[in-house]
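FORM 7B: Structural annotation worksheet

SECTION A. Query
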Amino acid sequence: MSKSKTIILTLTILFVVISGVGIWFYSTKDQREFSKVAYVEYCASCHGDGMSGARDGLDLFSTALIYGDDTESLINSIQTLPVHGDIAWVDDFPETGIKALALSISERRQQYPSISDSYQFSFSPKTIESTYHRFKVERFSELKHRPYSIAPMPDGRNLVSEKLRGLSVVDTAGNQSKLIEGTPEIFDKFFSADGAYVGWRHALEVALHPDYANNGWIYFSFADRCQLSCGSAIPQSMVKVVRGRIVENKWKDEETIWSVDKEHYTVVPDALAGGRLAFDKDNFLYVTVGGKSFYKNLHDMDTPYGKVHRVKDNGVVPNDNPFWLSENERDPSSTRNTVYSYGHRALQGLTEHPISGKIWSTEMGPRGGDEVNRIVKNGNFGWPLYTNGLDYDSTEIEIGADLGLDFPIEETVLPVVDFTPAPALSNLSFYHGEKFSDWHGDMLIGSLKAMSIYRLRITDGVLVEKETIATQIGRIRDIEIGADGLVYVAIEHGDNGSILRLVPI
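SECTION B. Predicted structure
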């Protein structure tokens, strides 16, 4: 065996071993997590192992709590209620430990399942009475595989992007077509961890050009992949955006709209890629890239990670982007010319307001601190220095300080809405249409872990109304408004998926 083949084989074996250890560590994390261990040791004797009460202790799961059940109220109750204050451990308990305990109780009250359980959830149709509308949630289409994105078309059909398959079309009766031929090749998962796929070169977002009815352009983001061509024994990938047209079920006229130099491809799996797309009213295209690298790179404008990028609809880079430099002033491999905002952790949603054209996003925090943000030019969104969440081991997030990041919170763009505990926010849309007229202009947001849809009414940048309009409907990857004014929801379950539909009654 040649020396080079020996090196590649050795590295591959090492990677497999490290991956196996990582899977074990990830799958057993709950057995070590501080708040769960602390609850069993200090709380379960009164409140029960499942928080449903024991001896004379209060049922924390279903009883209405007179002091409130939001995180701050729970923290206050743990610290100050006489029944707790008389117990010595309260004085010695770390502040972050109390917050983690409060988060654990709040997550339980909101019936957040484990990640693995959420993937096995089975949808059942239901009727819902919300504040403004009564509606039913029904299954519109069963999909071959897990979806990442849907794009409603003017004629009532829906384009669908499935992570491990690519693009297809669902007709107005809910029937899924064969795969569109000729789109960029998609690779299978490498393995699953707690139900989540780990792999490289998965399909991401599909979106229509604002003038699709006239030009037919369809935009598709995916995780482009390289391996030996990158000088690596292990696959590497990075978000790439192309556009094309569909003619007789074939992908035609492909053009690259946004891509980066191969030196920015990483071994970090595609679950952190992002790749969400949105157009503003001037037809500029915004592209999200998650933390697909070390956190130190999120504030380095020459790298693509943890940022929202902006190009024209044809891929030309506008010279009014905040970090634009002429060709002779910048490194050819730099991505700074397309950077629009930075300091993002895990951008899982992106959409435009149908009237103002402003761009809004959802972003996953760590344990707590999911955010709804309005994307602003040159905006620093603070991660990993500022967050309302905790680390997964119940300690403060210290990554930013460890990296030497030092900027005042006044220089960051604070979230318009904070979700703590974190429901794992996914994609979002603003409702526009006649079927749910009292939701007009409201934001609809999906969630993965909480399997819920949230309705937010935001006026002049301030949250004025928040309602959970549906729960227990599945892991929501995308939520879109169809040409018919109905709300279409893409969910994943097992290795398959579905498109649900909200229909007023």
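SECTION C. Observations
The chain has nine helices and 27 strands. The radius of gyration is 23 Å.

SECTION D. Sign-off
Analyst initials: ____
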